[in-house]
Amino acid sequence: MKVPHITSGIISICLGGLFYYLTLDFPKLNTADTGAAFLPRIYCGLLILFGIILLIQGIRDHSKNEESSQTVRYALIAMVIVLAYILVIPYIGFYVSTALTIFSLLFFSKVRKAVTLVSVPLGAVLFVFLVFEKLLKVSIPMGSLFL
């Protein structure tokens, strides 16, 4: 039995259920079209399904839990990087913070090739710019420092 898998599965199921419950207040359309809650409910269902799969895997797995302190440390550092990313988006904007976060995660993952460290963040930012901002006309946060 793997306690982290069981715990993650239960948390995923609970979050999926909570988010599904929150979609019940979304406005409904009078036509046969899908409403605002359609896609979030699909995501909630998938989150619940994957949580159930993770829970079952955790219960059925009888191997020893061999989580090293190094693995836990890496996971915590990656979570801190992502949390910092979320916190700095309003100030330095989406594009700069995304490029810095991807660079940081690659560097933290021991990627040392300069071409990769530069091209992957720039490619991701360029992709988001072209697809979402230019093609789909989605407004991307620019940050208060650049306004």
TrEMBL record:
Residues 8-141 form the DUF1468 domain. The chain crosses the membrane at residues 6-24, 36-56, 76-107, 114-132. InterPro entries: DUF1468. The keyword Cytoplasm does not apply. The keyword Transmembrane helix applies. It holds the Pfam family TctB. Keywords: Membrane, Transmembrane, Transmembrane helix. This is Tripartite tricarboxylate transporter TctB family protein. It comes from Sporosarcina newyorkensis.
